[in-house]
Amino acid sequence: MKTGVGRVLAQGVSKLRSIWIASFAVVLLAGMANAQNFAFNSFAIEGNQRVADGTILNFGGLQAGEGLSTAELNTAGQNIRASGLFESVDLVPQGSQLVIRVVEYPTINRINIEGNNRLRDAELLSLVQSQPRRVFTPAQAEADTAAITEAYARQGRINATVTPRIIPQSDNRVDLVFEVIESAVTEIERISFVGNRTFSEGRLRRVLESKEAGFFRILVARDTYSPERVAADREVLTDFYRSRGYIDFVIQNVDVSLTRERDAYLVTYNVREGQQFTFGNVSISSEINGVNAADFEDVFRVRSGATYSPVPIDTDITRIEREAVSRGLSFVEVEPRLTRNPRDLSVDLEYVLVSGERVFIERIDIEGNGTTLDRVIRNQFRTVEGDPLNAREIEDSARRIRALGFFQGVSVDTRPGTSPNQRIVDVDVTEGPTGTLTFGANFNTDTGLGLLASYRQSNFQGRGQRLNFDVSTAESNRRFSFGFTEPQLLGRDLRGSLDLSYATTDNENALYDTETLRFSPALSFPVSEEGRLSVFYALEYTDLSDVSSSASEIIRREGEAGGLWSNAIGYSYSFDNRRTGLNPNAGVVLRFGQEFGFGDTQFVKTTALAGAETKIFNEELTLRATLEAGLLSYQDGTSRVTDRFFLGSRLMRGFDAGGIGPRDDATDDALGGNAFSVVRLETEFPLGLPSEYGISGGAFIDYGSVWDVGETFGEDVIYNDFLARSVAGLSIFWSTPLGPLRFNFTEPLDVQDRDNTREFDVTISTSF
Q1: How far apart (Å, rounded) are the C-alpha atoms in residues 178 and 165?
Q2: Helix, strand or coil for residue 337?
Q3: CB of 546 within 8 A of CB of 512?
Q4: Which residues fall within 8 angstroms of residue 630, CB to CB, at 6 or more apart?
Q5: In whole angstroms, what separates CA 671 from the centre of its chain?
Q6: Which pLDDT tens digit goes with each residue over 97-107?
Q7: DSSP designation for 673
Q8: How many Å apart are CA 612 and CA 625, to the nearest integer?
Q9: CA–CA separation, 552 vs 97, rounded Å?
Q10: Distances from the Cα of 427 to the Cα of 28, 373, 586, angstroms
Q11: Which stretches of the chain score pLDDT less than 50?
Q12: What are the helix (H) ranges across 227-358?
């Protein structure tokens, strides 16, 4: 009699024996199955209607008389299924014959999209890879569904649902219908920052392309979440900090989450600013025999003590390399070598002249430009075939091509040429729309409500030429203008332009009508990196008519001359470094021009403007100062009311059009003046409102005058000498998708009794 332990052992041995026998049987049967071979002398294919027998056998790799194992037979079936033409595939051996039974997928009769309103059928169908008269496959229909869903997600409609439906038709055909249920736009509810100490959230939000949803969410596409836009915002934000000296700035991560209701996004940038650095010692040296670094010391502009920024470094490198080329030195490259000084938070900068690789440009290949001529793109290259290859020049050329605004995408790369020392430059562009037709309205308190229409084409006939045509009409004036510009006249950086304008005013706001026609061709060319000079000819016709008998004697006598023609030549110089200067927070703009009349009327008309802008308090407060002046002097003849200067609200706020300056003492008519000068001081600041509202505040002081009528014909003219006026005021700026709005509330500080002041001024410009 066995003990309990013995019984347990006996039972265990019995179980092990059973498991061993079962395992052995499985292995034996598997080996027998794998060892089984088939040899089929013939094939019978059943169920196929469109796909030929031979095609099915080719998919499976089947041939009569060829030996097959069970595994190979299974593989053949899988290969036939992988063709994507069959809903089911069965391989049944019957002696020496293999029967292949298939059920074909149906053919797509047509494809429809239903329930879509926000996206058009054509736009969605372009994403669908399933095609009519092709075989329907569930995998492709699923991929098409995902593509349509993604298109809605890019518009911010992440809750949109797309369901594919199959509608059977005769002859094994189906209609494929994508049923769309469009959701509301899932907007960006909040953009926030963590880790920022120097700049406020409001300032940083103004840097980003993405915006928070605000009043005009229906019109603003940038308040919808887009991964591509957030990726671009990361780069923009990094450039913003590093151009202001924060070398170690890094975006640690961008957290994007949905609200609990899944109807809005919350975007949070986690940043580490680091410390702000300035430039320490700035020098230049040479590692090339025969090249003296001292020859280039006057070329670079970065100076010690300035806030560190990579932008002026890149500009200096370009200037130095161009100087080297002008001195006949090829293959000279500039390496900027930086040395940090953590103790005083400065960076020593050394420009080192080194020998570059001796590689030449074999050719420039341009693709993707169906409309734009090749030469328009080639004109953006400072180098041509056969020149030494300079990687920085190629990058600059790519930037210039993008700056044209003709293309949605620009890619410029190099690849090996036909010899080791040659490279081919590939330019691949994707063209975008370059013309706009606009109908709109504008309003300001000087001219009232007006309608406008304009057509602008920045790439006329693919030649890079600019064409504009504008018509506007208001309560008291009408204006027509036409302009044509060739930016690369004679294949050089010489801008040729032709302008034609015609304007009339009626006596709605004055006791006379005016008519002005001006025709002016001009040539413009750069004289420095930020400066440009233009020379022009002007043919002008002015007419002063329908002068009321109650108008000033001065105006009546000027009207007796009727229509007058004048000829003039002139020049204008402009300088503007507000965007290209070394300091991203400050800049100046200068404009100076003179027009010399000859023929029946000889005159000199001089205008000048000087302005400066800077940002303080971590760029929260913007300060602007502008001085503008003009002088009109006649050597033969005299000025008329159509020629003289008037100070409207554009030049000096707080006054009606013609509200200050010389006046006829008897009739109180505004006569204008041959000279004017205005100083405008202005500040703009946030009001603490959410940035998505686009509302900021401002304050200003204007100080100026207009004087000197010229010939008075013995009439008594008041305020004919320089007599300064001054006004102060507050502004509200409102940036809307409909156009910029500005509201000015003014208070006179120093005015004269007969001046016409204005306490409120509004300017609205909109397009639709």
Answers
A1: 6
A2: strand
A3: yes
A4: 605, 606, 607, 608, 645, 675, 676, 677
A5: 45
A6: 899 999 888 99
A7: B
A8: 5
A9: 116
A10: 66, 13, 35
A11: 1-35, 216-221, 765-768
A12: 227-242, 310-326
Alpha-carbon torsion angle 60, 61, 63, 65, nearest 10: -90
d(CA 36, CA 68): 8
* DSSP string for 452-516: EEEEEEEEETTTTEEEEEEEEEESSEEEEEEEEEETTGGGSS-EEEEEEEEEEE-TTSSSSEEEE
| CA–CA distance, 751 with 560 (Å, rounded to integer) | 33
3-state DSSP call for residue 614?
Answer: strand
Going by C-beta distance under 8 Å and a sequence separation of 6 or more, which residues neighbour residue 19? Answer: none
**Three-state DSSP state, 301:** coil
DSSP per-residue string spanning 363-421: EEEEES-SSS-HHHHHTT-S--TTSBP-HHHHHHHHHHHHHTS-EEEEEEEEEE-SSTT
Task: Please give the Cα distance from 368 to 45 (Å, whole number).
Answer: 49
pLDDT at 222: 55
Q: Which of 617, 719, 621 minimizes the C-alpha distance to 676?
A: 719
Alpha-carbon gap, residue 555 to 547, rounded angstroms: 8
The residues near 577 (Cβ < 8 Å, ≥ 6 apart) are: 530, 587, 588, 589
Sign of the torsion formed by the C-alpha atoms of 4, 6, 11 and 16? positive
Q: How far apart are CA 412 and CA 394, in angstroms?
A: 8
| Residue 551 DSSP symbol | S
Cβ proximity of 597 and 604 under 8 Å: yes
Q: Which helix (H) or strand (E) holds 35?
A: helix 4-35
Predicted local distance difference test score (pLDDT) of residue 526: 92
The whole model's pTM is what?
A: 0.70
Helix axes 53-60, 70-82, angle to 10 degrees: 120
**What element of type H or E holds 146?**
helix 138-154
Q: How far does Cα 284 stand from its chain's mean position?
A: 36
Residue 166 in tokens: 């199959």
DSSP structure string for 188-242? EEEEEEES--SS-HHHHHHH-S-----TTTTT-GGGB--HHHHHHHHHHHHHHHH
Pair 682, 698: CB distance under 8 Å: yes
Helix, coil or strand: residue 185: coil
At 28 the three-state DSSP class reads helix
Q: CB within 8 A of 189, min separation 6: which ones? A: 212, 213, 259, 264, 265, 266
Contact residues for 502 (Cβ-Cβ < 8 A; gap 6+): 479, 480, 481, 515, 516, 517, 518
pLDDT of residue 218: 47
Per-residue model confidence (pLDDT) at position 448: 62
